[in-house]
Amino acid sequence: MSETTSDDIISEEVLYEKIDHYLMMFGGDRSLLCVSELDGFLTALGCSLKELEPDLWLNAIWGADEDQPIWENTEQEDEFLSLVLIMYMETMNSLLFGDFYPVYLEQEVDGRQKIIVDEWCVGFIRGAKLIGIGLDGDREFFDEVLAPARLFGTEAGWERQKNMVEEEIDFWRENLEPSILRLVQHFHPEMQTVPRLSDTRVLH
Fold it and tell me: 11's torsion region: left (phi>0), alpha (psi -120 to 50) or beta?
């Protein structure tokens, strides 16, 4: 398989593979560790009207100042930056034009393929904290729309799941995307397109 669909456009598969490679190679305990986490992180940034300086959120991918990668060469750093900016623009456009395609993981559980949303939610919660979603305004609204992401993306949420039956967990999982879309529309009421939730992208 060729790495690009044209001389200038990288395929989605190769984009994800390359980003995953860099995150695994240079990531640490406080970094985002996979494309699914990065997609959730970028989605949170796109939900808010507030804009962060690129250097701020790019550095936050790795954690604190001391967690920033030591690149082997400038070409490596430039490639990672280029790849992440491509994904950033794709995520922003998907939200603003109503085509919400979260990038989830998938794994085999008891012989069945199961979509895993935890990593995406971990990234989303991290991005939400960075940009300050829910700190101002209608607290009840934000608690409601952030509840599914908090359930699957925080240690407190994972503890809560231990006391839930599978049907209850499935209910919250099914409400994750509609809740995120409510959040997007809260900040971007001009978004009228109804997203095709059934076309969720999954990483294997």
Answer: beta
Q: Give mean pLDDT, residues 110-134.
A: 92
Order of all β-strands in the sheet with 103-109: 112-116, 103-109, 201-203
Average pLDDT over residues 154-182: 95
Euclidean distance between CA atoms 127 and 29, whole angstroms: 16
Rounded to an integer, the average pLDDT of 86-113 is 86
CA neighbours within 13 Å on the CB side: how many for 28?
12
Nearest Cα to Cα of residue 124 among 104, 107, 141: 104
DSSP reduced 3-state for 107: strand
Q: pTM value?
A: 0.90
**Residues above pLDDT 70, as percent of the chain:** 90
User: Length of the chain, please?
Assistant: 204
